[in-house]
Amino acid sequence: RRAVSYRKIEGIPGDWGTACNVQSMVFGNLGETSATGVAFSRNPATGENKFYGEWLINAQGEDVVAGIRTPNPLNEETKNPHNQNLKSLQVEWPELYRQLDDIRAKLEKHYRDMQDIEFTIQQGKLYMLQCRNGKRTGVAALNMAVDMLAEALIDEQTAVMRVQPAQLDELLHPIINPAAEKTAAPFLSGLPAGPGGACGKIVFTSVDAVAAARNGETVILVREETNPEDVEGMRAAEGILTARGGMTSHA
């Protein structure tokens, strides 16, 4: 059921097959000289041309993206008030970071689009697992299209096609008044994982979120962490708040 719901949300046909990859394995959980991470060749939230990502020592990829642990920042530019005391890959293993930074530049030049990169460090050696065109917010899509056109990575027609109608709609999402943000004293703060601002009644299960939405109520789904079981509740809720996870979590 959740797979059917997800396909409907993302507009994926139900008759497509499932790909199967067969490949050798490398492991990021072989001790303190191993790690895994997810990175974006540009900031997927703002579109800035800055290397962005998260990583974990002695972990597998699922630990980073599943939202069950809060990962370390990839570099000093990725740091925020919530992870500023955690070591970045740039500081902890500078040579491996330089290798990764060189690779991200080559990948973006080849694919001519922002890349979502997954990597593993096994006992001090860097391995690239996969890359793909990265998901991005509407603001990021617009900024990247303009910047890549200026950098001669793409032409005008490609730049226009890079910004989808749904991403333009994101630019119209309600936001918190910037002036109020400067004067307000927040009760709590966290990592922004999506565009816009939201308010509503708190619910703690996806079932309650769906039921409330059907009754015309606006709700915020609060979870310790999200998982595939929550896909319908995440769709129904006006906003989502989790206790764990990072900016690159799949949820």
UniProtKB/TrEMBL annotation:
Domain annotation PEP-utilising enzyme mobile: ranges: 217-251
Domain Pyruvate phosphate dikinase AMP/ATP-binding: residue ranges: 2-72, 97-142
InterPro entries: ATP_grasp_subdomain_1, PEP-util_enz_mobile_dom, Phosphohistidine_dom_sf, PPDK_AMP/ATP-bd, Pyruvate_phosphate_dikinase
Entry coiled-coil feature ranges: none
GO molecular function, one term: pyruvate, phosphate dikinase activity
Descriptive protein name: Pyruvate, phosphate dikinase
Species, as recorded: marine sediment metagenome
Lineage, opening ranks: unclassified sequences, metagenomes, ecological metagenomes
